[in-house]
């Protein structure tokens, strides 16, 4: 099962749509904040997809949750924007929260820096920023949940 992971669109609905369209096989989409208004406007165009989202520090006035935990295809996924865990300085608190929640996968945004790693049973993915703000690179993440395990990837929009 393919999962699309997006974050930090910052009013760039064109890039957000471009990333969703680039992965038609991804029936599940995680959006990690800072652009919920753009996402909410696009969701009706994708009736065959399931969306999970959290608000970020720039989603002013949103009533959306800040943390989510969901099981997809028997894989527990902890997801958040990351600002409440001070991820620009350390991932310690965030990884601790994900492990306490029993997650196998941790998804976060906020830094605009894409990264993927595997640490002591926990897959960690930050898709970067789909808008390219601050980094100049428009990126998103992919999770493939397979019988053999989890495969992560960072993809750059051209």
From TrEMBL:
Domain of life: Bacteria
Segments forming a coiled coil: none
Domain Calcineurin-like phosphoesterase: 1-145
Cofactor(s) required for function per UniProt: a divalent metal cation
EC number: 3.1.4.-
Keywords assigned by UniProt, alphabetized: Metal-binding
PANTHER family with a match to the protein in the record: VACUOLAR SORTING PROTEIN VPS29
Family, similarity comment: Belongs to the metallophosphoesterase superfamily. YfcE family.
NCBIfam families xref list: yfcE (TIGR00040)
The protein's name: Phosphoesterase
Species: Solibaculum intestinale
Organism lineage: Bacteria, Bacillati, Bacillota, Clostridia, Eubacteriales
